[in-house]
């Protein structure tokens, strides 16, 4: 634990992300975690539990609602018209905080590796509900909330995901 540095607490049961500094909550954000519940296994579509850290921060230079595919901006800006053209897409928008597990055998390495599972905190269309588990494993946030959070973090920030 790095005293003085911000850290993130994600509560699956409350569908809430809390930004903490020391023992003080600086901000709370509504989120949406996996529709399949919690779990570490690859291809489970579940949100992993346990201690993580932000491995990479992607999209800081991109406009709000930028579309990402394979962690790269496509140059598109999300809109209802774009959504109608690509109804099968799982929209990853605005920013990506790519998580890496810190607990070997639980959420790191082998078939339970959060980073290899491409578990992110990412933006989602405003039409997607928050507070209801609907993702494919990632943690979804409102785009403006994610941009505000992103500005307060650095790679290596600690993230705890609890049931």
Automatic annotation (TrEMBL):
<dbReference type="Pfam" id="PF03734">
    <property type="entry name" value="YkuD"/>
</dbReference>
<dbReference type="GO" id="GO:0018104">
    <property type="term" value="P:peptidoglycan-protein cross-linking"/>
</dbReference>
<comment type="pathway">
    <text>Cell wall biogenesis; peptidoglycan biosynthesis.</text>
</comment>
<keyword id="KW-0961">Cell wall biogenesis/degradation</keyword>
<keyword id="KW-0573">Peptidoglycan synthesis</keyword>
<dbReference type="GO" id="GO:0008360">
    <property type="term" value="P:regulation of cell shape"/>
</dbReference>
<dbReference type="GO" id="GO:0071972">
    <property type="term" value="F:peptidoglycan L,D-transpeptidase activity"/>
</dbReference>
<feature type="active site" description="Nucleophile">
    <location>
        <position position="138"/>
    </location>
</feature>
<keyword id="KW-0808">Transferase</keyword>
<dbReference type="GO" id="GO:0016757">
    <property type="term" value="F:glycosyltransferase activity"/>
</dbReference>
<dbReference type="GO" id="GO:0005576">
    <property type="term" value="C:extracellular region"/>
</dbReference>
<protein>
    <submittedName>
        <fullName>L,D-transpeptidase</fullName>
    </submittedName>
</protein>
<dbReference type="InterPro" id="IPR038063">
    <property type="entry name" value="Transpep_catalytic_dom"/>
</dbReference>
<keyword id="KW-0328">Glycosyltransferase</keyword>
<dbReference type="GO" id="GO:0071555">
    <property type="term" value="P:cell wall organization"/>
</dbReference>
<dbReference type="InterPro" id="IPR050979">
    <property type="entry name" value="LD-transpeptidase"/>
</dbReference>
<keyword id="KW-0133">Cell shape</keyword>
<comment type="similarity">
    <text>Belongs to the YkuD family.</text>
</comment>
<feature type="active site" description="Proton donor/acceptor">
    <location>
        <position position="122"/>
    </location>
</feature>
<dbReference type="InterPro" id="IPR005490">
    <property type="entry name" value="LD_TPept_cat_dom"/>
</dbReference>
<feature type="domain" description="L,D-TPase catalytic">
    <location>
        <begin position="6"/>
        <end position="162"/>
    </location>
</feature>
<keyword id="KW-0378">Hydrolase</keyword>
